[in-house]
Design brief:
With 142 residues, the protein is an alpha+beta fold. The protein has a single domain, classed as Aminopeptidase (3-Layer(aba) Sandwich), CATH 3.40.630. The protein has a six-stranded mixed sheet with strand order 1-2-3-4-6-5.
Length: 142
């Protein structure tokens, strides 16, 4: 995941995690974001959520990750499906977006499987680990 998620290298100690948790609670209270732990057989194996919720435009961006040992089991597909349902019912969203690095094939399989529509590629829009990365944008109207 380190290749695709820059926050991993920035999380070095307990204080970093505490700041993230405070940010999550603040976003939930404001209605601007919402993160969930992903549990499989009682063990936390990842996280998913709405990184941004734009109430004015009824739009949100979904993000997710899962531990390598739990990839390929359909867990993320189920989580994202549930998040779409939550976005539609709780947040009254109209548009849900997934963005992923063009090289992250596992992550890009999710929006394709769940009938999101490919909107395009943002070329060289992200600079990580000394190189530019491109990001695919997928959306679902609900």
């Amino acid at each position: 995941m380190r290749e695709y998620l820059s926050w991993i290298d920035k999380t070095k100690n307990l204080s970093d995690s505490e700041k993230f948790i405070a940010k999550v609670f603040n976003g939930y209270k404001k209605g601007t974001s919402c993160d969930f732990g992903i549990y499989y057989q009682g063990v936390m194996v990842g996280s998913g959520g709405f990184h941004t919720i734009d109430q004015k435009n009824k739009s949100a961006e979904i993000g997710y990750w899962i531990a390598k040992d739990f990839e390929g089991r359909g867990i993320i597909s189920k989580v994202v499906g549930k998040m779409v349902e939550i976005g539609k019912t709780k947040y009254k969203l109209h548009r849900i977006v997934i963005k992923a690095d063009t090289e992250n094939k596992r992550s890009l399989a999710i929006p394709n499987k769940l009938k999101f529509k490919y909107e395009g590629t943002m070329r060289d829009c992200d600079f990580k680990k000394g190189k530019f990365r491109s990001i695919e944008v997928w959306s679902l109207l609900v």
